[in-house]
Amino acid sequence: MIRRVFLGLFAGIICTSALFAEDAGTIRKDAGRLNVPIYRVAITSSDADTANLAKRAFGTHGSFRLSAPSQAQFIFDFAPSGGNSVKLTIKGGTVYEQVFSGSNSVEALMKACDAAVMKTIRTPGYFAGKIVFSYSKNGGQTSEICTSDMVFRNVRALTRDGNDSLMPHFSPDGSKIIYTGYYRTGFMDLLLIDLNTNTRKVFAAYKGSNTGGSFSPDGTRVATILTSTGNAEVWTASANGGGFKRITNTSATESTPSFSPDGRTLIFAGDYRGAPQIYTAPATGGKPSVVRTNISGYCSEPVWNKVNPDLIAFTIAQGKGFQIAVYNFRTKQTKVVSRGASTSGPKWLNDGRHIICTKSNGANRQLYIIDTETDSQKPLHTTSFGSAKEPDFAYTAR
Amino acid sequence: MKKILTIAALALSFMFLTACDSMDSPSPLDTRASDTSGELNPDGLPGDATMGADSGLQDRGLNSINGFDPENINPEDIVYTIYFGFDQYAVGSSERDKVKSAADFFAQNPDMKIVLVGHTDWYGTEEYNMLLSDKRCRAVSDYMGNIGTDPSRIEIIARGEAGATMDVAKNSPEAKKDRRVDIVKVK
After folding, report:
1. Which residues of chain B have a CB within 8 Å of the CB of A225?
2. Domain enclosing residue A232, as ranges
3. Do B156 and A344 touch (CB under 8 A)?
4. Using CB atoms, which residue from B22, B87, B135 is nearest to A275?
5. Across the interface, do A184 and B44 touch by the CB < 8 Å criterion?
6. Is residue A256 scored above 80 in pLDDT?
7. Does A155 contact chain B (CB < 8 Å)?
8. Residues of A numbered 113-142 whose beta carbons fall under 8 angstroms of chain B's beta carbons: which are they?
9. What is the nearest CA distance from B80 to chain A, expressed in angstroms?
């Protein structure tokens, strides 16, 4: 009896360290890259659809390689438990079990998947997040704003206007969406959708073009681009509307402004020297400063990493198309993190490591997840779904 | 043996098709919420008011120009088209006579509104291209203003790369046609 207890405790210690120590997995050591664990995992479930969805989710994450149970370092079992609940069991060390609930079965499953990520690599998972994007049917001439979960099971068209609706941005709590549209008037306006009240109103309809629309981290302000004064300039406004304050006053074209994680700085593209480069300016106004990324003559769409404020991601011109690059303010190094078909519009996910973006192939646009650590890049949907572009991401699951 | 291989091939084909299908979803525009009240303001924007105009911004209002639809322009309403170089917004010397002719046309038709619809080629990021097309419109607007057209008659609609021919070379005929401002008459 005593021997059994001792063996059990010993096995438990071994298994616990296997389950919860990051160095238990394969460590990838590429020159110039951070070390990240990569685990072989098997996904099992008594329900084929549940297993399939979980595999799709983990298939986009750079730290997991799907494998057979006999080859796996961990087995993640997802058991539908009724009532929009899923029971997660992690085998491969100390057995971990927990039941997760959601507003629907897919959300419950994605929350369980995120728990599996946290338990194995100790960073947040992004699977229970939601995305908003601009969508058009294949061959369609106009685009609408849609939201979805990360596995495209709950896709909702928010607009059905029959004209272009573009570049949506979530508020930090995911309850509001601001986007650029040509709704009803035919002019380029900023429109605000409140998902709680299911209402939409005009955010900015000034003479000329009204675009941008990125929320501050505390959700109280919005960074925009307005051309009403005769030239494209960065303006901030109250998230409730009004209170517009001019941030830049130049003869150049500024575009795609967004806030730093502390909300004190704006980052944007400006073509002060001809083609666009990355600049920052105080969020209260002031002289823009160039960010010398030294990677391309055309740099645009910068976004700050909220988890690691040393990092920004942005779009660069490379070859005949565009790719995503990441610049590190501390090391002053820039690396290209995407490859292949033209890629643009990066947005960081909540783990501060993966990026959601758009890949282009002719007229078709497809949303991708890129891992900035492992170079993994995976589509979120098939091309037959239609053309999806300009995604934004919010993680609000509890 | 042949039978087993056939069955295995069919099974593999089924697995492949199932895997492919698993990533497909119906078009969100084809789906219908069971509760139709889930659609956003199908009758239009509530309030019909902008959210505040200050700091010298000029409010445009929420009315279209006599029902003008920039996505369905009658070609006969395009008075002239002004073309631009790659990533350029200045009105080139070869295009100035067309702008002058357009200004003359509108001087003879004082009741018409003038809408400048700006475009770019596919190359560039979406928002940058939108603002480049805005800048092209403003260059044409400024030129027309300088030769006597009342600026209050002119409206600008920046369309960016919407409708551009994708993935063509910068110096291709298609890309050159996309870098333009259409000067449109609206009665």
Report:
1. 127, 131
2. 130-394
3. no
4. B87
5. yes
6. yes
7. yes
8. 135, 137, 141-142
9. 20
CATH number, domain with residue B107:
3.30.1330.60
CA of A353 to nearest chain B CA: how many angstroms apart? Answer: 23
Q: Do A47 and A10 belong together in one domain?
A: yes
Domain end call among A121, A154, A176: A121
Residues 43-102 of chain A with CB under 8 A from chain B are: 52, 56
CB contact under 8 A, B71 and A269: no
A309 and A389 part of one domain: yes
Q: Are residues A148 and A223 in the same domain?
A: yes
Task: Give the number of beta-carbon pairs within 8 Å between A and B.
Answer: 211
Residue B67 lies in a domain: yes
Strand order in the sheet with A199-204: A165-170, A176-181, A189-194, A199-204
Is A381's Cβ below 8 Å from some Cβ in B?
Answer: yes
Query: Is any Cβ of chain A less than 8 angstroms from the Cβ of B128?
Result: yes
- Split into its structural domains, chain B has a count of 1
Total structural domains within chain A:
2
Instruction: Give the nearest partner residue to A243 out of B23, B52, B61, using CB atoms.
Output: B52
Residues of chain A with Cβ-Cβ distance to B163 below 8 Å are 141
CA-based max dimension of chain B: 88
DSSP H or E run through B154: strand B154-158
**Do residues A321 and A281 both lie within one domain?**
yes
Are A253 and B132 in contact (CB < 8 Å)? Answer: yes
ipTM given for this complex? 0.86
pLDDT digits (tens, 9 = 90+) for A163-189: 899 999 999 999 999 999 998 888 999
Two tokens at A6?
């001792």
Out of A160, A253, A360, the one facing B39 most closely (by C-beta) is: A160
Chain B: residue whose CA lies nearest to A390: B126
Give pLDDT < 70 ranges for chain B.
Answer: 1-56, 61-63
Provide the pLDDT for residue A141. 83
3-state secondary structure chain A: CHHHHHHHHHHHHHHHHHHHCHHHCEEECCCCCCCEEEEEEEEECCCHHHHHHHHHHHHCCCCEEECCHHHCCEEEEEEECCCCEEEEEEECCCCEEEEEECCCHHHHHHHHHHHHHHHHHCCCCCCCCEEEEEEECCCCCCCEEEEEECCCCCCEECCCCCCCEEEEEECCCCCEEEEEECCCCCCCEEEEEECCCCEEEEEECECCCEEEEEECCCCCEEEEEECCCCCCEEEEEECCCCCCEECCCCCCCEEEEEECCCCCEEEEEEEEECEEEEEEEECCCCCCEECCCCCCCCEEEEEECCCCCCEEEEEEEECCEEEEEEEECCCCEEEECCCCCCEEEEEECCCCCEEEEEEEECCEEEEEEEECCCCCEEECCCHHHCEEEEEEEECCCC
Domain enclosing residue B120, as ranges: 62-186
Mean pLDDT check: name the lowest of A303-312, A348-357, B164-173. B164-173
A162 and A16 inside one domain: no
Chain A contacts of B135, Cβ < 8 Å?
231-232, 253
**From A52, A205, A275, residue closest to B50, measured CB to CB:** A205
